[in-house]
């Protein structure tokens, strides 16, 4: 990711990349940032949250928002194991 600086720019680049990957896998991925959704991308059956962090936070726990946890707990159609990817 040469030339991409800062967490916001890294997240935006990662979201664009993930949407392309999801599309190549036959899923209809949509960027849902700013739309009141619980994650950055919806790509049924997946809900994908992208987090970029570094510096002193690198290697620490990754926190989810309360709405994200509640949505995951309420999703009765989710796989037994959530999709987790580290970029």
Number of discrete helical segments: 2
What's the structural domain tally? 1
Approximately what portion of the residues adopt beta-strand conformation?
Answer: 5-15%
Reading the helices and strands in chain order gives HEEEH
Low-confidence stretches: none
- What would you call the structural class? alpha+beta
Mean pLDDT: 81
- Side by side, the strands of the main sheet go 1-2-3
Give the distance, in angstroms, between the N- and C-terminal Cα atoms: 11 Å
Helix content: 25-40%
How much is the radius of gyration in Å? 14 Å
Tally of strands: 3
Biggest sheet record = 3 strands, antiparallel
Which term fits the overall shape? globular
Report what the structure shows:
The protein is α+β, with helices and mostly antiparallel strands. The chain has one domain (7-54, 62-74). The chain has two helices and three strands; from the N terminus they run αβββα. It has helices spanning 7-24, 66-74; strands spanning 30-31, 41-43, 46-48. It has a three-stranded antiparallel beta sheet, covered by helices on one side. The model has no long low-confidence stretch (mean pLDDT 81).
């Amino acid at each position: 990711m040469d030339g991409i600086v800062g967490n916001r720019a890294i997240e935006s680049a990662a979201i664009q990349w993930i949407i392309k990957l999801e599309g190549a896998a036959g899923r209809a991925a949509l960027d849902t940032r700013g739309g009141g959704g619980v994650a950055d991308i919806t790509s049924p059956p997946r809900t994908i949250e992208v987090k970029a962090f570094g510096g002193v936070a690198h290697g620490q726990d990754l926190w989810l928002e309360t709405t994200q946890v509640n949505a995951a707990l309420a999703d009765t159609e989710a796989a037994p194991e959530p999709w987790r990817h580290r970029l």
